[in-house]
Amino acid sequence: MINPSSSTWTRLRDEVCEELRDRIIAGRLRPGHRLLERDLAEEFETSRVPVREAIQVLTLEGFVEALSPRRIVVKQVSRRDVEELFSVREALEVQATREATRRARPRDLRELERLLGQAQRATLSGKPETISRANAAFHRHIVTLADNRLLASLLQPLEGRLRWLFQQINDPGQLLDEHRELYEAIASGDPEAAATFALGHVRRYREIAMRLLYGESAE
């Protein structure tokens, strides 16, 4: 039997991870749902190795947790989880916006504008999964424009949870309007003004998320 190469394992792991992440974000896998390596390996027609590695990635991202060595379940997102996510976003995304504004060239802004248009079309579609993906892609490109590898490595594990948060928003039109303003702030070329708007953006959505998810103020 030929052993798959490491690149094949990585590809399989990423495919399994992406599908499971999508199911969790969309609510097709609910908190408490048990993930069995054997069953998932059979479903994805692969060995247990990429499944096990995919589960490890999702554990690091905060989507699943081990209740015991043999019991892995989809995690219930707690109030503390959301508070910590916004605290980290407040620190890192504001800095990413500042650096992106400083470095963005005309072609970079055109790409950001294209992604904004994609988010607008997604919003008009009314499909929560499509909307969350498009808005996450907009934020991801801001991080790309910042061109800071350490910053990108710190934010990358949060992307799935950011998509999950976007899917909880009950007014995607308002989110789109804020992203338009964020784009304008970056396009202005004033790093501090853009960072200030980004800070307000994160804090406003922290308040909205806490109210929608837990019926409480973020304070």
Overview features:
74% helix, single chain, mainly alpha, globular, 219 residues, three-stranded antiparallel beta sheet
Describe the structure.
Helices cover 74% and strands 5% of the residues. The protein is mainly α. It has a 3-stranded antiparallel β-sheet with strand order 1-3-2. A hairpin with a 2-residue loop joins strand 2 and strand 3 (71-74). The N and C termini lie far apart (59 Å). The mean pLDDT is 92.
Query: How large is the count of helical segments?
Result: 10
Biggest sheet features: 3 strands, antiparallel
Taking Cα atoms only, what radius of gyration do you get, to the nearest Å?
A: 19 Å
Q: Which percent bin holds the helix content?
A: over 70%
**Percent of residues in β-strands:** 5-15%
Quick rundown:
With about 220 residues, the protein is mostly helical. The protein is built from 10 helices and 3 strands; from the N terminus they run H-E-H-H-E-E-H-H-H-H-H-H-H.
What's the arrangement of secondary structure elements?
Elements: H1 6-26, E1 34-35, H2 37-43, H3 48-61, E2 64-68, E3 71-74, H4 79-103, H5 106-125, H6 128-146, H7 149-155, H8 159-168, H9 172-187, H10 191-214
Antiparallel strand pairs: 1-3, 2-3
Helix pairs in contact: 1-3, 1-8, 2-3, 4-6, 4-10, 5-6, 5-9, 6-8, 9-10
